[in-house]
C-alpha cells in the first residue's frame, strides 16, 4: 500500500525574540589614568562652514559665522542654539562692541559691515564700505572697528562710530601691502593692531599703533609662518601669538619690533589662537591623531593641559579644530572651540576649567583578597605642568555589594613624590572598588582614579528539582529551588528557557525562599525547557545557580476517514473499509515552524503486527494539520494499523520530546 499527502503545506514566519541572559561575572576595574582631556561637552551647530567665533560674556552667548550658508548661529554657554541670523552672504569676521550691545559682522557678499543687537538679535545697522570690496576680518582697537578687505589687492580700513555719523576710512595700511584681506589681531585697550597675510605664503607681520587720530606703522618684518589663520595680542599689548600651517608651533613676538620671544610647542599645524584676559594662551592645532587644544600660561612654555577631540566621523583621524575656532569667555571660566569631523559636521565644544592643569591619578588594588582580612591599596598623583606638594589630601571611597553608592573611608595624604597607600579590611565579598579623588584647587583640575579587587566569599548550595522528567503537552509543572545558608540575601530567581529560538528566557518568579529555604514556580510545559534557579549572592556568600531540564511531549490527535463503519474485534475498535477504498489518516499536532510528523503503518500477519514498509515524514500545515491517504490493498481480509508520531530531531526540530499518537486500526472487506 502506498501513501500520499493530500494536505498542501503552508509556511509562516515566527519572529525571533531576544533571549535574556543572567550574568554573574564581575569585571575588575582598570586603574584610571588621565591623558589629554576630552572636550567637556559638544553640541551640533547646524552650519556648513565656520569662519569666526565670538563670545559675548555679558549675555553669555557664543556667535559662529557660516559664510557658506550666509548666516550666524548664536548659542548659549552650554552650546544650545538660541538663534540663527540669516541673509548674510559670505559672512566672515566678527567683533563685539565695548559695551557688549552690538555684534559686528563682515559680510563680504554685501560689501558691508552689519551690526546685530545682542539683546534682540535684530539687525540694528548696515554700514556701506564704498571702495572696500569683500571685507573679511574685524578687530576692535582704540574705540574703532578695524577691518581687512580686498581680493587681489587688500587693505585695512576703519569704521568710527563715536560721532553722530559713522565714518569709514580706507587705505589705513600705510606702506604695507597685502595680497588680499589680511588677518587682524588687536588689543582693544593699548591700541596695538597686527596684520598678516591670510591667503598667501608671505610670512610678514605688520604692527600698527592705532591709539592716535591716524594709524602709525611701527614695524613690518618677515617671521616664522605663512598663511596666518589667526593672530592674538596679549592683554598687556606686549606680545603677539600667531597660528599658521607652519611652523609646527605657535611663535611669540614682541609688539615693539617683532623680535621673537619664545614659542608654544603645540606640535602640529597651527589653526587658531586666543588669549584670555589674564594672559592664559589657548593654542589650537589641526590634529587628526593628537591633542587639538593646548593651554599655556603667558610666557611659560610648558603646557598646562591639553584637550583632544573624539572621532565623530568615519575616517581614522579624529575631529579637528576649525581655523580661527577658539574663543575665551571673558572671565576665563570656559574656552569655546569649533570642531569639524570627516563628514563636514561642525560642533561647538565647551571646555571648562581650561586654565587648570590636569593631574594624573592612578590607583592599584590587589587582584584578589579575602573578606574580613586587611589588604593594601596604593597609587600616585602626578602633574607635569604644576607639581602637587607633599601632604596633598585625597578622598577615598569604597563600593561593594552592601554599599553600591560608596562609603567614605579616611582620607589619605600624598608623599613627596605624589605616591600614597592605605590599608582596608573589606567587610563584604565580591567586587570591591576603591575610588581615590583629588578635589582640585585654583591651579589644578579635579582628578580621580579607581581599581577593584575580587574579594572571596563562601559558597552556598542551591538545588532545583524535576531534572530529566517528561510531561504531557501543556502540563503545569511546579519546580522548587532550595537555597542553603546565606548571610542576608534570601532571594532566588527562577527562569524558564523553552527550546527554540523564538521563545526568550523568561523570569517566572523572584522572591524570598520560605523558612525551609524553598521557592516554587509553575512552568507551562509546552516545550522542552531549561529551568534555572539563580542566587545573586550577598556580602558573605557567592552567587550561584542550578539548572534542571524537563521535557514536554507534543499534543497529537488523529482521526480516520473513508470507512463505512466501525466495530470491535476482540477489545479493539476497527475502522471498516471496502477493499478498494483508500483510508485517510488526519493528524493534528502542536505546530512549530518546519515541523513534520512521521507516518507509520503495520499489517497483521500470522498473529503479529509487521511493518508495512519504511516510515515516511509529512509536513504539517500552518494550522498543525496533515492528511495522509493510503492506497487501498484491492483485496479483503487484511487488517492494518497506522499512527502519526513526533520524533525529536527527525521531525524537523528538537523543541519537544518524542511523542507517539495512538494506533488507528483498519479492516478491509469486500
From TrEMBL:
Residues 1-31 form the signal peptide. This is Ig-like domain repeat protein. The keyword Signal applies. Keywords: Signal. InterPro entries: Quino_amine_DH_bsu, WD40/YVTN_repeat-like_dom_sf. It comes from the Bacteria. It comes from Streptomyces durmitorensis.
Amino acid at each position: 500500500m502506498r501513501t500520499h499527502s493530500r494536505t498542501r503545506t503552508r509556511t509562516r514566519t515566527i519572529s525571533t525574540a531576544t533571549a535574556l541572559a543572567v550574568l554573574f561575572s564581575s569585571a575588575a576595574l582598570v586603574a584610571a589614568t588621565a591623558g589629554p582631556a576630552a572636550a567637556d561637552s559638544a553640541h551640533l551647530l547646524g552650519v556648513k562652514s565656520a569662519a569666526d567665533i565670538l563670545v559675548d560674556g555679558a549675555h553669555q552667548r557664543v556667535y559662529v559665522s557660516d559664510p557658506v550658508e550666509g548666516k550666524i548661529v548664536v548659542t548659549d554657554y552650554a552650546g544650545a542654539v538660541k538663534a540663527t541670523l540669516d541673509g548674510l552672504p559670505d559672512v566672515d569676521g566678527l567683533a563685539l562692541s565695548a559695551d557688549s550691545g552690538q555684534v559686528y559682522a563682515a559680510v563680504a557678499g554685501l560689501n558691508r559691515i552689519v551690526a546685530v543687537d545682542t539683546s534682540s538679535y535684530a539687525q540694528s545697522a548696515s554700514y556701506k564700505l564704498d571702495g572696500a570690496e569683500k571685507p573679511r576680518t574685524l578687530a576692535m582697537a582704540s574705540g574703532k572697528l578695524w577691518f581687512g578687505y580686498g581680493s587681489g589687492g587688500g587693505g585695512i580700513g576703519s569704521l568710527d562710530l563715536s560721532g553722530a555719523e559713522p565714518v569709514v576710512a580706507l587705505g589705513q595700511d600705510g606702506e604695507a601691502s597685502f595680497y588680499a584681506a589680511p588677518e587682524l589681531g588687536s588689543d582693544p585697550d593699548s591700541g596695538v593692531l597686527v596684520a598678516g597675510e591670510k591667503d598667501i605664503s608671505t610670512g610678514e607681520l605688520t604692527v600698527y599703533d592705532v591709539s592716535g587720530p591716524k594709524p602709525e606703522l611701527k614695524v613690518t618684518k618677515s617671521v616664522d609662518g605663512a598663511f596666518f589663520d589667526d593672530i592674538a595680542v596679549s592683554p598687556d599689548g606686549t606680545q603677539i601669538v600667531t597660528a599658521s600651517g607652519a611652523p609646527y608651533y605657535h611663535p611669540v613676538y614682541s609688539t615693539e619690533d617683532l623680535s621673537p620671544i619664545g614659542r608654544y610647542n603645540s606640535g602640529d599645524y597651527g589653526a587658531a589662537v586666543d588669549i584670555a584676559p589674564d594672559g592664559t594662551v589657548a593654542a589650537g592645532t589641526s590634529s587628526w591623531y593628537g591633542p587639538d587644544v593646548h593651554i599655556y600660561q603667558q610666557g611659560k612654555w610648558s603646557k598646562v593641559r591639553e584637550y583632544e577631540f573624539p572621532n565623530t566621523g568615519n575616517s581614522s583621524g579624529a575631529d579637528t579644530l576649525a581655523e580661527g575656532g577658539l574663543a575665551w569667555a571673558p572671565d576665563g571660566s570656559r574656552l569655546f572651540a569649533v570642531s569639524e569631523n570627516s563628514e563636514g559636521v561642525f560642533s561647538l565644544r565647551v571646555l571648562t576649567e581650561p586654565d587648570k592643569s590636569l593631574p594624573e591619578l592612578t590607583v592599584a588594588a590587589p587582584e584578589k583578597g579575602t573578606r574580613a582580612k586587611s589588604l593594601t591599596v596604593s597609587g600616585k598623583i602626578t602633574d607635569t605642568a604644576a607639581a602637587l606638594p607633599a601632604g596633598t589630601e585625597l578622598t577615598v571611597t569604597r563600593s561593594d555589594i552592601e554599599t553600591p553608592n560608596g562609603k567614605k573611608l579616611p582620607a589619605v595624604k600624598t608623599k613627596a613624590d605624589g605616591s600614597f597607600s592605605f590599608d582596608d579590611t573589606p567587610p563584604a565579598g565580591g567586587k570591591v572598588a576603591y575610588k581615590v579623588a583629588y578635589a582640585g584647587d585654583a591651579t589644578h583640575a579635579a582628578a580621580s582614579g579607581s581599581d577593584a579587587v575580587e574579594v572571596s566569599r563562601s559558597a552556598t548550595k542551591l538545588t532545583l528539582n524535576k531534572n530529566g522528567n517528561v510531561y504531557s503537552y501543556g502540563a503545569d509543572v511546579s519546580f522548587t529551588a532550595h537555597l542553603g545558608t546565606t548571610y542576608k540575601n534570601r532571594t532566588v530567581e527562577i527562569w524558564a528557557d523553552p527550546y527554540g529560538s523564538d521563545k526568550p528566557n523568561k523570569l517566572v518568579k523572584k522572591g524570598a525562599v520560605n523558612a525551609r529555604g524553598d521557592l516554587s514556580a509553575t512552568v507551562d510545559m509546552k516545550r522542552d525547557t531549561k529551568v534555572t534557579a539563580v542566587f545573586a549572592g550577598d556580602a558573605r556568600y557567592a552567587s550561584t545557580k542550578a539548572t534542571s531540564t524537563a521535557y514536554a511531549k507534543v499534543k497529537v490527535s488523529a482521526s480516520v476517514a473513508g470507512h463505512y463503519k466501525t466495530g470491535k474485534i476482540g477489545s479493539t475498535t476497527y475502522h471498516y473499509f471496502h477493499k478498494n477504498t483508500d483510508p485517510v489518516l488526519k493528524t493534528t499536532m502542536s505546530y512549530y515552524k518546519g515541523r513534520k510528523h512521521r507516518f507509520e503503518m503495520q499489517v497483521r500477519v500470522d498473529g503479529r503486527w509487521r511493518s508495512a514498509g519504511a516510515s515516511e515524514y509529512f509536513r504539517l500545515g500552518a494550522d498543525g494539520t496533515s492528511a495522509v491517504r493510503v492506497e487501498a490493498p484491492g483485496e479483503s481480509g487484511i487488517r492494518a494499523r497506522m499512527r502519526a508520531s513526533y520524533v525529536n530531531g527527525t521531525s524537523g526540530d528538537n523543541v519537544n520530546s518524542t511523542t507517539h499518537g495512538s494506533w488507528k486500526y483498519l479492516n478491509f472487506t469486500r
